[in-house]
Amino acid sequence: MSQSSPTQPGHLYVVPTPIGNLEDITLRALRILKEVDLIAAEDTRHSKRLLNHFEITTPLISYYREKEVQRSAELVDRLRMGTIIALISDAGTPGISDPGAVLVREARAAGIEVTPLPGPSALTTALSAAGLTDTGFLFLGFAPSKQSQRRKLLTSLTSAAHPVIFYESPHRMADLLKDINATLGDRQIFWARELTKIHEEIRTGSATELLALCGADKIRGESVLIIEAGLQQSTEADNLDELLIWYRDQGQLSLKDTSRKIAQDLGLSRSEVYQQALTMWKDRT
Ligand code: SAM
């Protein structure tokens, strides 16, 4: 991609990169990274290794959290002058718990075309294997590092009707699990660690079961936690009971199919609806 004429504005590409396995980069991402004039990278030394691997020699400029505002202004100036730029982060999709949002916002405000490429993200990779929801989910990135703020946030999620997803680093995993247990109860959690890497590990268990694993073994590698939705919301619980009674009494669907349908319609966890259905079916007179 050669530099456009100065009267022609440039173009910003948002390019996801692998979260572990280098084979996960897309053909389009490789082409764009080769063709652009400049790559804005969270950590240029880190990204150099990826680019060397694919023999990409495009010049790099750093774009990291602490300098996002200042660097965005500089990059938008260059975009206005016709430079074609690709934005990457250390791993995964830029702007997802990574720098990127400021540049994207400023570029679009300046009338620069922004093209996002689909590609790797720990969020979608984990979620796709969790089997927890086909309706909605609540992604909150990293939980606050201060315990008081973390517990406040978790408490506010007590009646969330959808699975809640957090990113977490190994040294804070035990604290997060303890606080989930203290605020939301011993919920079922899907835990994906080192996704796409040699030591990839996927487990499900209650908060206390997973906490026991943290104690037994030093946890290594980055993780995604998906907390199953609870049933604390009273209106939902009422709705659920009414629906279960209706389905039970009109007798068209099996208990399993009923649970699946109601979980989908109300955006609730299938296993919790199933448990509740078992109780209601048992109470049939
Ligand atoms: N932008 C990235 C994305 O799209 O996934 C996320 C960047 S954020 C700074 C890094 C966090 O993502 C890690 O602490 C971890 O929670 C999660 N993560 C990144 N790579 C992962 C992997 N291979 N396995 C599990 N979680 C990962």
**Large-scale geometry:** elongated
Helical proportion, percent range: 40-55%
Overall mean pLDDT stands at: 90
- Look up the CATH topology of the largest domain: Cobalt-precorrin-4 Transmethylase, domain 1
Low-confidence stretches: none
Largest sheet strand order: 3-2-4-1-5
CATH superfamily placement of the largest domain: Tetrapyrrole methylase, N-terminal domain
Radius of gyration: 23 Å
N-end to C-end Cα span: 73 Å
What would you say about this model in short?
It is built from 11 helices and 10 strands. By secondary structure, it is an alpha/beta fold. Strands 3-2-4-1-5 form a 5-stranded parallel β-sheet, sandwiched between helices. Strands 6-7-10-8-9 form a 5-stranded mixed β-sheet.
How would you describe this protein?
The structure is a single chain. By secondary structure, this protein is α/β, with parallel strands linked by helices. The chain has helices at 27-35, 44-53, 68-80, 101-109, 122-130, 147-155, 173-184, 207-216, 234-250, 255-266, 270-282; strands at residues 11-14, 38-41, 60-62, 84-88, 113-116, 138-142, 164-168, 188-193, 201-206, 223-227. The chain has three domains: 11-120, Cobalt-precorrin-4 Transmethylase, domain 1 (3-Layer(aba) Sandwich), CATH 3.40.1010; 123-227, Tetrapyrrole methylase, C-terminal domain (Methyltransferase, Cobalt-precorrin-4 Transmethylase, Domain 2, 2-Layer Sandwich); 240-281. It is built from eleven helices and ten strands. A five-stranded parallel sheet has the order 3-2-4-1-5, sandwiched between helices. Strands 6-7-10-8-9 form a five-stranded mixed sheet. Strand 6, helix 6 (147-155) and strand 7 form a beta-alpha-beta unit. Helix 10 packs across helix 11. The radius of gyration is 23 Å and the shape is elongated. The relative contact order is 0.11. The mean pLDDT is 90. Residues 19-20, 89, 91-93, 96-98, 121-123, 167-169, 192-197, 222-224 line the site of S-adenosylmethionine.
